[in-house]
Design a protein that fits this description.
Length: 343
């Protein structure tokens, strides 16, 4: 559902011809690939193979799936430390992402970045950022570069609801609007900024959408658990940006099934809330819709099995990959990372 009430109105993004069959199939596959990847990441973390921590986007797959299906291959993505889904679905190989989580040489950052710093420039996944809000101005810069070069690329920047109370959010939206940049900012509002309900620290009910008018942007709210709704909204704003009509801000309302990170049991959430949102699981909803539309159950089963086979192969490839040696320590640095430069 797209809510365009309030200050500013957005055009109805629903295509008259409906959603192509291949797009729906792609989104179902994307959501399943993201789901099995994060389930395996969780299992490996619990067994001690994934070091540090992980921030899972389980339950939020429809947002990344809808946008990835609507984007052009060379469009760029920026995301947060909860960035497994976005990086994977932008095209980063599952094996390289799993290798990165396990700290192996085969990882997309050669084992040096880990779960919170996934980057695959070849596939235009321009990084997941651990500092809240840090990537929003970087995304604006990437969009400005595309604009100057005339490449037609659109930048999509994902962030959480807590970011809407960070200065970089407002600064980035302002300059993007002033310069008419081809960037789409997507707030994945999962109701909590770490352990604090966003509603308890924000003056407006919709932390992103209700502020859009301050920058001359339309108020757009989408059901972030409905892949079709996300896809349609994404098509509309991406086409708008590519046509030179400037940035957009979307608030996708969704919910994470787990706590903020693997160290968080999520006990601050009120009784019944998790169960209520579990009934809105985007994968369950979408499978039921596809079957109603006439997709054979056997075809959907094959999509799920393919995702499971892919994660099994990726896991085994990561496990047998070597740990990075000393030779990689000083690679991919802007300057000498040793102590000599301090002297």
């Amino acid at each position: 559902m797209i809510d365009t009430s309030g200050a500013g109105t957005a055009p109805n993004p629903r295509p008259a011809s409906g959603i192509p069959t291949e797009a729906r199939r792609a989104m179902y596959s994307a959501m399943w690939r993201a789901r099995v990847f994060e389930k395996r990441a969780y299992d490996l973390f619990m067994s001690g193979l994934v070091k540090g921590t992980t921030h899972l986007g389980t339950g939020q797959e429809a947002v990344a799936a809808g946008f990835s299906t609507a984007m052009r291959d060379d469009d760029m993505v920026f995301c947060t430390y909860r960035g497994h889904n976005h990086t994977l679905l932008r095209g980063a190989p599952m094996a390289s992402l799993m290798g990165e989580l396990l700290g192996r040489e085969s990882g997309c950052c050669r084992g040096k970045g880990g779960s919170m710093h996934l980057t695959d420039v070849e596939h235009h996944a321009m990084g997941s950022y651990a500092i809240v809000g840090a990537h929003l101005p970087v995304a604006a810069g990437a969009a400005w570069a595309s604009q100057e070069r005339g490449t037609g690329q659109v930048t999509v920047c994902f962030f959480g609801d807590g970011t809407t109370n960070i200065g970089a959010f407002h600064e980035s939206l302002n300059i993007a609007a002033v310069w008419g940049l081809p960037v789409v900012y997507v707030c994945e509002n999962n109701l909590y900024m770490e352990y604090t309900p966003i509603s308890s620290v924000t003056a407006v009910p919709n932390p992103a959408a209700d502020r859009a008018a301050s920058y001359g942007l339309d108020r757009i709210i989408v059901d972030g658990n409905d892949a079709d709704a996300v896809y349609e909204a994404a098509l509309s704003v991406i086409d708008r940006a590519r046509a030179g009509e400037g940035p957009s801000l979307i608030e996708a309302q969704t919910y994470r099934h787990y706590g903020h990170s693997r160290a968080d049991p999520g006990k601050y959430r009120p009784a019944g809330e998790v169960e209520e949102w579990m009934e809105k699981d985007p994968l369950v909803i979408y499978r039921a819709r596809l079957e109603k539309l006439g997709f054979p159950a056997a075809d959907l089963d094959r999509i799920e099995e393919a995702a499971r086979a892919e994660i099994d192969a990726a896991t085994e490839a990561a496990k047998v990959s070597a740990e990075p040696g000393e030779a990689v320590l000083m690679t991919d640095l802007w300057a000498d990372g040793g102590s000599s430069w301090r002297r």
